[in-house]
Amino acid sequence: MHYRMHYDEVLPDDGCGWERKRFTYDRATHYSYKFMVSGEFYSVVARHINSERELNQLGYALPQDCSFPDPLMAEVYFDRFHDIESFGNFFHYSSKGLGNGTVLLNVASLMLEHYNTFNLGGFVFQAALPSQTGAKRQADLVEIYDCLLGLSTTPRVNVKTGRLKKSITPLLPPNMRAFKSTSTGRDYVIIC
Fold it and tell me: Superkingdom, according to UniProt (predicted)?
């Protein structure tokens, strides 16, 4: 099956250094960003969410005592990009050196850029299941995301050597709080 993506608008580079395109899919506004690491293209997509009802329809829930933040939220997902048919498979791809860390740093930077551009009230995203990320992944993405978001202080262990890894400095600015779903353990909510 061949998919044809129609972009509503290709936005000029406003100095952020990433190509940004706006499109509508499933009656929701999406923005895609493209970047390259180690010779591979990656795409980050931010789907705008306008209400708690819409958030719940996507399978997410806000933490207790949190109301839907104004003016809107965004669901974020990313993957290596070859073509529209393969996008969204969420397989893990090994990169030499710091490639995987560079990908996550780019995704975090794009999320902050999107937050600043659209004055978002928050983000939601999911950690792909280990079966989706492929056999090459040594650490579950939940372990990595928990550390990056400051949700875990448990020391990480290198599975090859058995030695403790360096601790990860959380990436969230002080005005953002991260939460993890207790029902799935793989859904994340960031309130700005």
Answer: Bacteria
Is residue 112 classed exposed, middle or buried when 0-12, 13-18 and 19+ CB atoms within 10 A define those classes? middle
- Written as one letter, the residue type at 77 is Y
- To the nearest whole number, what is the mean pLDDT of the chain? 81
DSSP label at residue 174: T
Distance CA 177, CA 156 (A): 22
pLDDT, mean of residues 15-22: 74
**Extended beta strands in the chain, E state:** 9-11, 19-25, 28-37, 40-49, 73-80, 122-126, 177-180, 187-191
- Of 13-17, 61-65, 105-109, the range with the lowest mean pLDDT is 13-17
| Distance of alpha carbon 99 from alpha carbon 85, whole angstroms | 24
Assign 103 to helix, strand or coil. Answer: helix
Write out the two tokens for 132.
Answer: 């989706």
Q: Among 141, 142, 136, 144, which Cα is nearest to 170's?
A: 144
Q: How much is the pTM?
A: 0.83
Contacts of 86 by beta carbon, 8 Å cutoff, 6+ apart: none
What are residue 47's DSSP bridge partners?
30, 75
Higher pLDDT, 169 or 33: 33
